[in-house]
Amino acid sequence: MGRSGRVTLTDVAKASGVSRATVSFVLNDDPRQTISTATRERVMEAARDLGYVPHGIARALREGSSRIVVLNVDWGMEGNFSRSYVRGLDEELAEHDHILLVRHGHAIPEATQKVLDTIAPRAVLRLGEAYMRGHGPVEEDWESGFAFNAALQIGYLAERGHTRIAMALPDHDFPLTEARLGFAREAARRLGLPPLERFVVPRPREAGAIAVRSFLAVHSDVTALAAFDDDIALRALTALRDLDLRVPEHVAVIGFDEIEYGALSTPALTTVHIDAEILGRIAARNALGIDAGGLAPVPGRIVVRGSV
Question: Measured in whole angstroms, how far is the alpha carbon of residue 67 from the centre of its chain?
Answer without folding.
Answer: 21
